[in-house]
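Squalene monooxygenase structure dump, as promised
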Amino acid sequence: MDYPYILGGIMACSFAFLYVVYSFGAKKVTDSSSIHVKSNECAKTSSEGGICSSDEDAGSADIIIVGAGVAGAALAYTLGKDGRRVHVIERDLSEPDRIVGELLQPGGYLRLIELGLQDCVDEIDSQQVFGYALYMDGKNTKLSYPLEKFSSDISGRSFHNGRFIQRMREKASSLPNVKLEQGTVTSLLEEKGTITGVHYKIKSGQEFTAKAPLTIVCDGCFSNLRRSLCNPKVDVPSHFVGLVLENCNLPYANHGHVILGDPSPVLFYPISSTEIRCLVDVPGQKLPSLGGGEMACYLKTVVAPQVPPELYDSFIAAIDKGNIRTMPNRSMPASPYPTPGALLMGDAFNMRHPLTGGGMTVALSDIVVLRDLLKPLHDLHDASALCRYLESFYTLRKPVASTINTLAGALYKVFCASPDPARKEMRQACFDYLSLGGVFSDGPIALLSGLNPRPLSLVLHFFAVAIYGVGRLLIPFPSPKRMWIGARLISVSTSHFPFCSNNIQNISHITYC
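structure tokens r here:
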């Protein structure tokens, strides 16, 4: 009997129509792969400094939303369904092509249902995801989502990000009180310290202003407006290198696969019935050259030997095909300047390492919180009072956002390889702890999936892994070397934990306008 494992186990028990195009009418959109708008023209206009503003439309919107990605499109539909007049301005309404934002955790799918957007994962060849398979040093373990208390439809969903976004845009624009327009917002319109709308430019180069009592900025991870509304501290710890594997099968069907490789994790998950996304995490700021063949060499010599045998040939074929994409992995804590008349949402507001696929869950959860806060308000025109009222948004979002953000950052650090013996032990302890099954895997996976995003549960499991690792070292023979590594393991654990504890303490923090 393996007493260290048993003792460790005992010690560890703790988010079609394109409606309203400027001119003299709206045009029904029949091509779901692309949304088109007519150019904006001023009907009854006054022009000042080359910027048009429509007298007819001035103040006709209750809310302006900048950006129609996952957060912006979902928010537009949600607020439009509640009767708000919403004006959405999106830089590019053609179908996005991204290598991230393709896995929606079960907790995010529950929020999608709550918002009435669950049909947006239909008819896009999305795939159900029921958990993860974890690989390390030739061993693997299957970790299922704890879905026993839910209906059979509840699971994760994986898909092409662009198809999902287009479905939500179509759903939002089908509402008569939601106007979806293609244009680039160049700046926020400010009057006496209050944001009253935006300046934006259409494809022809003509500039316009749009006004509303509330402007919500959802222009994504590359936001050019966030500096006006927050103190952005963006960290880029690594890059994802993306490939698509075709016509092959994952060892565990309908599961994401995480390989704890050296130097860092490799992910596989289905994005359609015939395609598997591979994301290779490459630490640091500098990537091997794509054009010079260095990246292909790196993938073949460093990564390929660590790929499960069932996926090896398809992985090599994907490299040889040459469609290799890259994306910086950004992390940014929520640090807003509460500003009358404006609010930040989505990746413009808060980002975490995408390893755990929690971004859309956080964004959709934030939309639920904001919807419930705005629902009883009939008049949004008192900017100062609205700003004070929306202070609670930052507090109410904390339990879910902090838990998912913290777990993403901590797991990335633990899952990366290291020559440090204590970090190696922590990595091994985490793998073995999850392999125990039962509450030892259900608890962490419930956190990861957004099904139970409770800060206290995160803290308990975080320390349980550390205690489990120390127990494995000290039993049955606590040699001086093992005791030293155990002490270092605790130190390594707590070095990650300030990130966690600061977020949890901030649950009770309110920032005032």
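The CA atoms of residues 407 and 448 lie 7 Å apart.
lmk if u need the other ones
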